[in-house]
């Protein structure tokens, strides 16, 4: 079987496994990884040489698992296929993202603001206790669009580049960025390498995700928002993704939001109507269409490789 065909089929199998099983309900490996990361940060985040200490902590947290995955893949083709499928299932968060988003959208649509606030607090870092329905919808929609890249398409991209170890590398690096990549006194220097590693690994996948959102939504509007609004966002990868996604949906996102007890003014994203529950459902549908596009293109490439090999 041509390598590209095998890669496409293992990708489809990993996505199917995620769709059927979702993330592990008990003993999730990321919980253990998070505990390891917290232990390393507590031990290594000292006043002196914080950048170097952060780099060493990042290396100790990530590389042993990636190297172990590479070693397992070297034991034989059948083992490599199983490892790739298992690692993609572990690294992919497509079903989980949709479940969390629907858990916000359904009560919001039904008028249960308290439950919608509670559930959106599970997926965003801003203060949610006093959010209005529009603010809840905006927070949820932004999270779906951004995490479409972080939890799905960045993982798929690196899987296509380097198989299961690539997907694992991206997911662990993204997790460390979420834990250490803050511009606060505690993490500004220690977490710098974690933030930069995530920026580098996510740069191309983010732009492919933004392009996919644009192609599958209001294309011209999405490209305009990407070009004019994306560069103003503090994250070099989240900006293009969320700007293109907001433009594709023709919805207004960004702007003022509460963080750590104070209102933070963020650049605007998209334009059009104010977000509501329907915006959340539309964002979920956009992510699902994008996932179908990526799988379809992967399988098409695999079929072409198979045809050329047997021509």
Automatic annotation (TrEMBL):
<keyword id="KW-1003">Cell membrane</keyword>
<keyword id="KW-0169">Cobalamin biosynthesis</keyword>
<dbReference type="GO" id="GO:0015420">
    <property type="term" value="F:ABC-type vitamin B12 transporter activity"/>
</dbReference>
<feature type="transmembrane region" description="Helical">
    <location>
        <begin position="51"/>
        <end position="72"/>
    </location>
</feature>
<feature type="transmembrane region" description="Helical">
    <location>
        <begin position="291"/>
        <end position="309"/>
    </location>
</feature>
<keyword id="KW-0472">Membrane</keyword>
<dbReference type="InterPro" id="IPR004485">
    <property type="entry name" value="Cobalamin_biosynth_CobD/CbiB"/>
</dbReference>
<dbReference type="GO" id="GO:0005886">
    <property type="term" value="C:plasma membrane"/>
</dbReference>
<comment type="function">
    <text>Converts cobyric acid to cobinamide by the addition of aminopropanol on the F carboxylic group.</text>
</comment>
<dbReference type="Pfam" id="PF03186">
    <property type="entry name" value="CobD_Cbib"/>
</dbReference>
<feature type="transmembrane region" description="Helical">
    <location>
        <begin position="151"/>
        <end position="173"/>
    </location>
</feature>
<comment type="pathway">
    <text>Cofactor biosynthesis; adenosylcobalamin biosynthesis.</text>
</comment>
<keyword id="KW-0812">Transmembrane</keyword>
<comment type="similarity">
    <text>Belongs to the CobD/CbiB family.</text>
</comment>
<keyword id="KW-1133">Transmembrane helix</keyword>
<protein>
    <recommendedName>
        <fullName>Cobalamin biosynthesis protein CobD</fullName>
    </recommendedName>
</protein>
<dbReference type="GO" id="GO:0009236">
    <property type="term" value="P:cobalamin biosynthetic process"/>
</dbReference>
<dbReference type="GO" id="GO:0048472">
    <property type="term" value="F:threonine-phosphate decarboxylase activity"/>
</dbReference>
């Amino acid at each position: 079987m041509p390598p590209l065909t095998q890669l496409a089929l293992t990708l489809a199998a990993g996505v199917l496994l995620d769709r059927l099983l979702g993330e592990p309900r008990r003993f999730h490996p990321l919980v253990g990884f998070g505990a390891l990361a917290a232990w390393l940060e507590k031990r290594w985040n000292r006043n002196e040489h914080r950048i170097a200490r952060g780099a060493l902590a990042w290396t100790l947290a990530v590389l042993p698992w990636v190297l172990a995955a590479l070693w397992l893949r070297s034991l034989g083709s059948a083992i490599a296929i199983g490892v790739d499928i298992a690692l993609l299932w572990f690294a992919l968060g497509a079903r989980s993202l949709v479940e969390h988003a629907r858990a916000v959208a359904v009560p919001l649509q039904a008028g249960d603001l308290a439950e919608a606030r509670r559930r959106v607090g599970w997926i965003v870092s801003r203060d949610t206790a006093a959010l209005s329905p529009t603010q809840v919808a905006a927070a949820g929609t932004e999270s779906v669009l951004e995490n479409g890249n972080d939890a799905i398409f960045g993982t798929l991209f690196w899987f296509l580049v380097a198989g299961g170890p690539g997907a694992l590398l991206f997911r662990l690096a993204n997790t460390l960025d979420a834990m250490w990549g803050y511009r606060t006194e505690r993490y500004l220097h220690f977490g710098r390498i974690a933030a930069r590693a995530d920026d580098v690994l996510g740069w191309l996948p983010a732009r492919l995700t933004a392009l996919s959102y644009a192609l599958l939504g209001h294309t011209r509007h999405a490209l305009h928002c990407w070009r004019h609004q994306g560069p103003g966002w503090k994250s070099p990868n989240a900006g293009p993704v969320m700007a293109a996604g907001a433009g594709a949906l023709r919805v207004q996102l960004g702007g003022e939001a509460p963080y750590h007890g104070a209102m933070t003014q963020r650049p605007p994203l998209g334009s059009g109507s104010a977000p509501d529950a329907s915006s959340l459902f539309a964002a979920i549908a956009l992510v699902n269409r994008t996932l179908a596009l990526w799988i379809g293109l992967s399988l098409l490439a695999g079929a072409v490789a198979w045809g050329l090999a047997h021509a």
